[in-house]
């Protein structure tokens, strides 16, 4: 492959261009739920299910569509203690987590607080997304191409050669955009009102560009 590139572009300047764009988040996904522990599995399951039902009721009463609430994970796990090399059964842990999709970002703290008041004792993930993600990614890619062109012009000017107007080859490299998780906790949320700051979402792009010079 290297020989083919050299044959197609015998005298080239190769540069890496990088671009960055931001977008305002307009959707939030929260993963929260109930973790129950005890020795009697049937009672644990019933208690866990009742609290999950109460949480769903509280969320729908705040205007979240039922279809925006889905089980993210459900698990029943035996718990053991270890003493003198012996495994001692301690009980069970029942975990039921919901993924809640929320339009916008303003009401996230209020929704988390309502879930906690209804029995949620775990909030494991809060992430943000934007409907403008594709446009922001394209903007980052365009910025990466311009960055590569500017670098190639600097190199060509420095070594005293003229650069082709059109690149010989352009290759996008795998540097995808990201939407950061800004809140993460496996601990029960306290009595204070929860404040979530969405910030801005960043999207990155990178390209490798080959220019013929003479």
For this entry, give a set of tags.
3-stranded antiparallel beta sheet; 8 strands; alpha+beta; Alpha-Beta Plaits; Translation Initiation Factor IF3; 214 residues; disordered N terminus
Question: What is the CATH architecture term of the largest domain?
Answer: 2-Layer Sandwich
Approximately how much helix is present in the residues? 25-40%
Question: What's the number of structural domains?
Answer: 2
- Fourth-tier CATH superfamily name of the largest domain: Protein of unknown function (DUF541), domain 2
- Major pleated sheet: 5 strands, antiparallel
Strand content: 35-45%
Going across the biggest sheet, name each strand in turn: 3-4-2-5-7
Structural class: alpha+beta
Return the average pLDDT rounded to an integer.
88
According to CATH, what is the topology of the largest domain?
Alpha-Beta Plaits
List unreliable stretches of 5+ residues: 1-6, 179-189
Number of strands: 8
User: How many angstroms does the end-to-end distance come to?
Assistant: 23 Å
CATH class of the largest domain: Alpha Beta
What is the molecular shape?
elongated
Following the backbone from N to C, one meets helices and strands in this order, namely HEEHEEHEHEEE
Number of helices, counting only DSSP H or I runs of 4 residues or more: 4
Radius of gyration: 26 Å
Provide an overview of this structure.
- The protein contains 4 helices and 8 strands.
- It has 214 residues and is of the alpha+beta class.
- It folds into 2 domains: 69 residues, Translation Initiation Factor IF3; 103 residues, Protein of unknown function (DUF541), domain 2 (Alpha-Beta Plaits), CATH 3.30.70.2970.
- β3 and β4 form a beta hairpin.
- It starts with a helix and ends with a strand.
């Amino acid at each position: 492959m290297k020989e083919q590139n050299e044959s197609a572009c015998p005298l080239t300047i190769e540069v890496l261009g990088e671009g960055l764009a931001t977008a305002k988040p307009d959707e939030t996904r929260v993963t929260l739920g109930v973790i129950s522990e005890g020795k009697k599995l049937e009672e644990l399951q019933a208690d866990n299910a009742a609290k999950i039902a109460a949480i769903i009721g509280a969320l729908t009463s705040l205007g979240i569509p039922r279809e925006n609430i889905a089980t993210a994970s459900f698990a029943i796990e035996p718990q053991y203690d270890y003493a003198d090399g012996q495994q001692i059964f301690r009980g069970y842990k029942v975990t039921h987590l919901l993924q809640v999709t929320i339009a916008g970002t303003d009401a996230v703290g209020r929704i988390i607080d309502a879930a906690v008041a209804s029995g949620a004792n775990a909030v494991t993930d809060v992430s943000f997304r934007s409907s403008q993600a594709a446009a922001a990614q394209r903007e980052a890619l365009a910025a990466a191409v311009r960055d590569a062109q500017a670098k190639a012009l600097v190199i060509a000017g420095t070594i005293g050669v003229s650069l082709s107007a059109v690149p010989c080859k352009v290759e996008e490299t795998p540097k995808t955009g990201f939407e950061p998780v800004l809140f993460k906790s496996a601990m029960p949320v306290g009595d204070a009102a929860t404040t979530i700051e969405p910030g801005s979402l960043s999207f990155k792009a990178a390209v490798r560009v080959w220019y013929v010079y003479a």
